[in-house]
Fold:
Amino acid sequence: MELLRPEGCALLTVECQRGVVGPHSALPELAAVARESGALGRVAQLVAAAHDTGVQVLHAVAERRADGRGANRNAPLFRAVERLPVRQLTGSAAVEIAAPVPVAAEDLVVRRLHGLSPIAGTEVDALLRNLGCRTLVIVGVSANVAIPGAVFDAVNLGYTAVVPGDAIAGVPASYTPAMVRHTLALVATVSTADEVTACWRRTAVRPSGSSSPGP
Structure:
Protein backbone atom coordinates (compact mmCIF):
# COMPACT_ATOMS: atom_id res chain seq x y z
CA MET A 1 0.00 0.00 0.00
CA GLU A 2 2.91 2.36 0.73
CA LEU A 3 4.25 1.87 -2.79
CA LEU A 4 0.90 2.78 -4.32
CA ARG A 5 0.05 5.98 -2.46
CA PRO A 6 -1.47 8.15 -5.22
CA GLU A 7 0.65 11.22 -4.50
CA GLY A 8 3.86 9.34 -5.33
CA CYS A 9 2.59 6.95 -7.97
CA ALA A 10 1.87 7.05 -11.70
CA LEU A 11 0.23 4.66 -14.15
CA LEU A 12 1.89 4.07 -17.53
CA THR A 13 -0.17 2.46 -20.29
CA VAL A 14 2.02 1.02 -23.03
CA GLU A 15 0.91 1.00 -26.68
CA CYS A 16 -2.80 0.72 -25.84
CA GLN A 17 -3.53 2.36 -29.17
CA ARG A 18 -6.05 1.51 -31.87
CA GLY A 19 -3.46 0.33 -34.37
CA VAL A 20 -2.08 -2.17 -31.86
CA VAL A 21 -4.98 -3.40 -29.69
CA GLY A 22 -7.98 -2.02 -31.59
CA PRO A 23 -10.32 -3.92 -33.93
CA HIS A 24 -8.25 -2.92 -36.99
CA SER A 25 -4.87 -3.71 -35.45
CA ALA A 26 -1.64 -4.14 -37.38
CA LEU A 27 -1.06 -7.07 -34.99
CA PRO A 28 -4.41 -8.91 -34.91
CA GLU A 29 -3.12 -11.85 -32.84
CA LEU A 30 -1.85 -9.52 -30.11
CA ALA A 31 -5.06 -7.48 -30.22
CA ALA A 32 -7.16 -10.63 -29.85
CA VAL A 33 -5.14 -11.85 -26.87
CA ALA A 34 -5.30 -8.44 -25.19
CA ARG A 35 -9.08 -8.38 -25.46
CA GLU A 36 -9.92 -12.05 -24.94
CA SER A 37 -7.67 -12.36 -21.87
CA GLY A 38 -9.38 -9.35 -20.31
CA ALA A 39 -6.06 -7.48 -20.10
CA LEU A 40 -7.30 -4.47 -22.08
CA GLY A 41 -10.43 -4.26 -19.94
CA ARG A 42 -8.28 -4.29 -16.81
CA VAL A 43 -6.11 -1.51 -18.25
CA ALA A 44 -9.31 0.51 -18.63
CA GLN A 45 -10.27 -0.36 -15.05
CA LEU A 46 -6.92 0.87 -13.75
CA VAL A 47 -7.02 4.08 -15.78
CA ALA A 48 -10.52 4.87 -14.50
CA ALA A 49 -9.41 4.16 -10.92
CA ALA A 50 -6.36 6.39 -11.39
CA HIS A 51 -8.60 9.21 -12.60
CA ASP A 52 -10.84 8.77 -9.57
CA THR A 53 -8.04 8.74 -7.01
CA GLY A 54 -5.59 11.36 -8.23
CA VAL A 55 -2.99 9.02 -9.71
CA GLN A 56 -1.22 10.53 -12.71
CA VAL A 57 -1.79 8.62 -15.96
CA LEU A 58 0.70 8.59 -18.83
CA HIS A 59 -0.09 6.93 -22.16
CA ALA A 60 2.96 5.78 -24.13
CA VAL A 61 2.24 5.68 -27.85
CA ALA A 62 4.50 4.29 -30.59
CA GLU A 63 4.16 6.02 -33.94
CA ARG A 64 5.98 6.73 -37.20
CA ARG A 65 6.26 9.55 -39.65
CA ALA A 66 4.88 8.79 -43.11
CA ASP A 67 8.41 9.07 -44.53
CA GLY A 68 9.84 6.86 -41.77
CA ARG A 69 12.39 9.51 -40.86
CA GLY A 70 14.06 8.84 -37.52
CA ALA A 71 12.63 5.33 -37.14
CA ASN A 72 14.85 2.37 -36.27
CA ARG A 73 15.68 -0.25 -38.88
CA ASN A 74 18.29 -2.16 -36.90
CA ALA A 75 16.17 -5.17 -35.85
CA PRO A 76 13.84 -7.62 -37.64
CA LEU A 77 10.85 -6.24 -35.72
CA PHE A 78 11.30 -2.74 -37.14
CA ARG A 79 11.64 -4.03 -40.69
CA ALA A 80 8.51 -6.17 -40.28
CA VAL A 81 6.53 -3.16 -39.02
CA GLU A 82 7.31 -1.30 -42.24
CA ARG A 83 5.52 -4.03 -44.23
CA LEU A 84 2.35 -4.21 -42.11
CA PRO A 85 -0.91 -3.07 -43.75
CA VAL A 86 -1.82 -0.86 -40.76
CA ARG A 87 0.81 1.76 -39.99
CA GLN A 88 1.08 3.74 -36.76
CA LEU A 89 1.32 7.08 -38.52
CA THR A 90 1.46 10.32 -36.58
CA GLY A 91 -1.96 11.98 -36.53
CA SER A 92 -3.83 8.90 -37.74
CA ALA A 93 -6.57 6.96 -35.96
CA ALA A 94 -4.08 4.13 -35.37
CA VAL A 95 -2.24 6.15 -32.71
CA GLU A 96 -5.35 7.15 -30.75
CA ILE A 97 -5.90 5.42 -27.40
CA ALA A 98 -8.11 2.39 -27.96
CA ALA A 99 -11.51 1.81 -26.38
CA PRO A 100 -12.41 1.01 -23.68
CA VAL A 101 -9.42 2.83 -22.14
CA PRO A 102 -10.59 6.30 -21.00
CA VAL A 103 -8.51 9.44 -21.51
CA ALA A 104 -8.89 12.47 -19.22
CA ALA A 105 -7.73 16.03 -19.73
CA GLU A 106 -5.05 15.62 -17.04
CA ASP A 107 -3.49 12.57 -18.69
CA LEU A 108 -0.11 12.94 -20.38
CA VAL A 109 0.45 11.33 -23.79
CA VAL A 110 4.08 10.57 -24.64
CA ARG A 111 4.74 9.74 -28.29
CA ARG A 112 7.92 8.18 -29.64
CA LEU A 113 9.22 7.77 -33.17
CA HIS A 114 12.06 5.39 -32.39
CA GLY A 115 13.21 2.46 -30.32
CA LEU A 116 11.55 -0.30 -28.36
CA SER A 117 11.05 1.27 -24.96
CA PRO A 118 8.31 3.70 -23.90
CA ILE A 119 10.77 5.21 -21.39
CA ALA A 120 14.32 5.28 -22.80
CA GLY A 121 14.84 8.34 -24.97
CA THR A 122 11.36 9.77 -24.22
CA GLU A 123 9.97 12.43 -21.88
CA VAL A 124 8.62 9.88 -19.39
CA ASP A 125 11.48 10.04 -16.87
CA ALA A 126 11.58 13.85 -16.73
CA LEU A 127 7.79 14.07 -16.42
CA LEU A 128 7.71 11.55 -13.58
CA ARG A 129 10.45 13.35 -11.68
CA ASN A 130 8.72 16.71 -12.08
CA LEU A 131 5.52 15.11 -10.76
CA GLY A 132 7.30 13.63 -7.75
CA CYS A 133 6.49 10.04 -8.73
CA ARG A 134 8.66 7.24 -7.41
CA THR A 135 6.44 4.22 -8.16
CA LEU A 136 5.42 3.36 -11.71
CA VAL A 137 2.58 0.95 -12.44
CA ILE A 138 3.12 -0.48 -15.93
CA VAL A 139 0.33 -2.02 -18.03
CA GLY A 140 -0.48 -2.74 -21.68
CA VAL A 141 1.37 -4.55 -24.47
CA SER A 142 3.38 -6.39 -25.26
CA ALA A 143 4.77 -8.79 -22.70
CA ASN A 144 7.20 -9.85 -25.44
CA VAL A 145 9.06 -6.55 -25.88
CA ALA A 146 7.75 -3.18 -24.67
CA ILE A 147 6.57 -4.19 -21.19
CA PRO A 148 9.83 -5.81 -20.05
CA GLY A 149 11.73 -2.94 -21.69
CA ALA A 150 9.70 -0.42 -19.69
CA VAL A 151 10.14 -2.34 -16.44
CA PHE A 152 13.92 -2.64 -16.87
CA ASP A 153 14.26 1.04 -17.77
CA ALA A 154 12.11 2.13 -14.82
CA VAL A 155 14.17 0.08 -12.38
CA ASN A 156 17.46 1.28 -13.88
CA LEU A 157 16.28 4.88 -13.41
CA GLY A 158 15.51 4.29 -9.75
CA TYR A 159 11.73 3.85 -9.86
CA THR A 160 9.90 1.02 -8.14
CA ALA A 161 7.99 -0.86 -10.84
CA VAL A 162 4.63 -2.48 -10.15
CA VAL A 163 3.18 -4.83 -12.77
CA PRO A 164 -0.43 -5.99 -12.53
CA GLY A 165 0.15 -9.31 -14.28
CA ASP A 166 -3.45 -9.55 -15.48
CA ALA A 167 -3.27 -6.15 -17.21
CA ILE A 168 -0.50 -7.01 -19.68
CA ALA A 169 -0.64 -9.24 -22.75
CA GLY A 170 1.68 -10.86 -25.26
CA VAL A 171 1.75 -13.62 -27.85
CA PRO A 172 1.24 -16.44 -27.50
CA ALA A 173 -1.08 -15.99 -24.52
CA SER A 174 0.87 -18.61 -22.56
CA TYR A 175 4.02 -16.50 -22.78
CA THR A 176 2.75 -13.71 -20.52
CA PRO A 177 2.52 -15.66 -17.24
CA ALA A 178 5.93 -17.18 -17.98
CA MET A 179 7.44 -13.74 -18.54
CA VAL A 180 5.84 -12.45 -15.34
CA ARG A 181 6.95 -15.39 -13.22
CA HIS A 182 10.47 -15.90 -14.51
CA THR A 183 11.55 -12.36 -15.42
CA LEU A 184 9.36 -9.48 -14.27
CA ALA A 185 8.87 -10.87 -10.76
CA LEU A 186 12.63 -10.61 -10.25
CA VAL A 187 12.67 -6.84 -10.73
CA ALA A 188 9.11 -5.59 -10.15
CA THR A 189 6.35 -5.98 -7.60
CA VAL A 190 3.80 -8.22 -9.30
CA SER A 191 0.17 -7.61 -8.39
CA THR A 192 -3.29 -7.67 -9.96
CA ALA A 193 -5.52 -4.93 -11.31
CA ASP A 194 -7.99 -5.43 -8.46
CA GLU A 195 -5.26 -5.20 -5.81
CA VAL A 196 -3.83 -2.00 -7.28
CA THR A 197 -7.28 -0.45 -7.60
CA ALA A 198 -8.14 -1.34 -4.00
CA CYS A 199 -4.89 0.22 -2.72
CA TRP A 200 -5.52 3.44 -4.62
CA ARG A 201 -9.06 3.72 -3.33
CA ARG A 202 -7.95 3.17 0.28
CA THR A 203 -5.28 5.87 0.08
CA ALA A 204 -6.94 8.31 -2.36
CA VAL A 205 -5.89 11.93 -2.11
CA ARG A 206 -9.26 13.15 -3.35
CA PRO A 207 -12.79 11.76 -3.29
CA SER A 208 -13.83 9.37 -6.04
CA GLY A 209 -15.53 10.96 -9.01
CA SER A 210 -15.64 10.71 -12.76
CA SER A 211 -13.18 12.56 -14.89
CA SER A 212 -14.21 14.46 -17.94
CA PRO A 213 -12.83 12.97 -21.15
CA GLY A 214 -9.88 14.70 -22.71
CA PRO A 215 -9.44 15.53 -26.36
Observations:
- Residues 207-215 have pLDDT under 50 and may be disordered.
